[in-house]
Amino acid sequence: MTIYAPIVCVSDLNVSINNNLLLNDVNLSVPAGIWLGVVGPNGGGKSTLIKALMGQVPYRGQIALDWPEQSARRIGYLPQIAVIEPSLPITVSDYLTMVCDTRPVWFRHKQKQAILNAMTRLQIETFNNKRLGTLSAGERQRVLLCAALINQPDILVLDEPLAGVDKEGHALILNVLSEFHQAGGSVIMVEHHWHVVEQYCQFVAVIDGQLVDYGPIEHVFGRLKPNVAPFELATSA
Ligand SMILES: Nc1ncnc2c1ncn2[C@@H]1O[C@H](COP(=O)(O)OP(=O)(O)OP(=O)(O)O)[C@@H](O)[C@H]1O
Questions:
Q1: Reduced to 3 states, what is the DSSP secondary structure of residue 50?
Q2: Torsion angle, alpha carbons of 147, 152, 158, 160, to 10
C-alpha cells in the first residue's frame, strides 16, 4: 500500500441538533499515521464527532483534511451499527461491487480481485449471495469493514467496529486493522473496550459533550487513572 500522511484538524467544532448542543468547541489535530481511540460515556457525542468528520451532520467550525499533494484522498468509513432491512434485495457481492465501482452492478461479470482479496482477509468469501439484512451483527461488521478497506483508503474512520462481534471476530478485525495501520494507514476509531484502546491506540480523545482530554495515550491515561475514567462508564452496544 502507498503510504500517505493525512492529518485531520478540527477547529472550534460545534454540533447542535434541534437546539441541543451535542458537541461544544472541539479542537483537535490528528497526527499522520496515528491510531486514535475516541472514548467517553454513552451519549457523550462520540458518534456525533464521527458523523461531523464524515459530513453527515451540520456543524459550525472547521474540519480540515491536510493531505500530501499526491494523495488519492481516500477515506474508508464504517458507520455505527444499524439494522438493515432483511428483505432489502442486495447481496454482499452486490454491495461490495457497488462500493468498488460506480457502474451498474449488472455490467460486471467478474468480481474484481481487490474485492476477493479483501473478502478473503475478512473471512467472508462465502457470503457472496447472502442478503445484507440477513447477516448477524458480527458478519455485517466484517462486510462493512471489507467495504471500508476495498478502495485502499489512507485513513479509516470507524464507529465501534467491534460492536456485536464475537471474540474470534474481535481478533480477526483487530489483526486486519493492525496490518492497515502498520502499512502506514491512519485510524480514527470509536471504541468502548478499554483494553482494546490501551493495546492498539497511540492517541486518545475523551468526548463528553466536549473534548475532555486529548493526546498520547500514556498522557491521557495518566491523567485519568486517579479518578474514574469517563470511558469506563460506557458500555458496548
Ligand atoms: N439526530 C439526533 N437528534 C437528536 N439528538 C441526537 C441525535 N443524534 C444524537 N443525538 C443525541 O446526541 C447525544 C450524543 O449522541 P452520540 O450518539 O453522538 O453519543 P455516543 O457518545 O456515540 O453514544 P454511545 O456511546 O451510546 O453510542 C445523545 O444524547 C443523543 O441522544
A1: helix
A2: 60
Element (H, E) at 167: helix 167-182
What is the length of the chain?
237
Amino acid letter, residue 162: L
pLDDT, greater one: 151 or 102? 151
* Nearest CA residue ID for atom 25, ligand 1: 42
Q: What is the whole-number distance in angstroms between the Cα of residue 162 and the centre of ligand 1?
A: 19
Cβ atoms of 22 and 15 within 8 Å: the answer is yes
Output the average pLDDT for the chain. 86
Whole-prediction pTM value? 0.89
Tell me which residue has cell 492517541. 203
Q: How far is CA 28 from CA 43, 53, 172, 198, in A?
A: 20, 12, 30, 20
Mutate which of 13, 47, 191 for ligand 1 pocket (most atoms within 8 A of beta carbon): 47
Closest CA to 201 of 231, 165, 226, 164: 231
What is the distance between the alpha carbons of residues 218 and 57, in angstroms, rounded to a whole number? Answer: 32
Domains of the chain, CATH where assigned: 7-232 (3.40.50.300)
